[in-house]
Write the structure tokens for this entry.
Amino acid sequence: MAPSLAIEVNGMKFENPFVLGSGPPGTNARVIARSYDLGWGGMVCKTISLDASKVINTNPRYGKLRSREKGEVVGFENIELISDRPFDAWLDDLRQLKKNYPSKILIASIMEEYRKEAWQEITRRVQETGIDGFELNLSCPHGLPERKMGMAMGENPDMVEEVTGWVMEVAKKPVWAKMTPNVGNPATPALAAIKGGANGISTINTILSVIGVDLKTLRPMPTVEGYTVPGGYSGQAVKPIALRHVMEIARAKPGVEISGIGGIETGRDAAEFMLMGASTVQICTGAMLRGYEIIDELKADLTAFMASHNFENLRQFIGKSLEYFSTHHDLVDRQKANREKTAAARGAVRAGKDAETWQGQIAKETDELAAN
């Protein structure tokens, strides 16, 4: 019997743990429907707000970091803002998607200014569409900081707890808080969100970065009319950082549901995030670069991993590798103890061989005496 990829998280039943993350892959109902048809387990729509008129995206807004040898994209930066589509259009899309795909998981990513009435209004109006859950974007690293949106909010634990609490007062659906990696201790804002009532944590959002400089023009990229701003870094290169953040949060709050994000492009990548404590994984840049069709490969890879370890379901290995993290002092003690044990074992072997040699010599001399 093949391993099961189905999992229930905060009451939401995912047919598989692969979720398209918030961003260009979920920019409208048409592309979201296509992801469902292809077999993705869920979708977090592009972040929406009550007033999209203030959102004006530039062009270009993407930058790529390529490997020196093969030229493949290993890092990706974007300065794209949240959705610029009218809020009412989004409500229509969400409502239609739940009508056409009632069993598929649809999570609404929402972001608002630092005002209680705004957060509660968007929560009430969006959940009326029938969506399955919310993801609070408290972590976008660029754009709109003057309105205390995104990372400007998420790097402040007190604000994270307060805003999450506002949403939880009116939310009737599960709520995940999406965390920024642009902080010292990733567990601090995550624990604040949980204290505010969040049902789960999504991590990580993109890393504030500068992708590079054009050495011909001396302009940083992506260049817009000769200028730029730092943007969000994603792709394969951020995976080690994302794994560490998932691990830190999972250890700080055992049992919390985590949706792991950052550099996931294969089912084996997903398995690593789950071993660190994630119960679902989100993929955005990987799907943009390789196409939505990678879902078949993702599912096959993860199924093969599970079969190789005789895991029948996802819960059997979620967080399984966390117990192997320790302190440097403990690693030193363990290595010292192992070396002493090995040395003692080698000494015993040598002693045994010496004893065998000695016994052999005695036997030889005894035989010689008997012969004479």
User: Anything to note?
Assistant: The chain has a mean pLDDT of 94. The longest strand covers residues 73-78. The chain has two domains: 7-322, 326-372. The two ends are 75 Å apart (CA to CA).
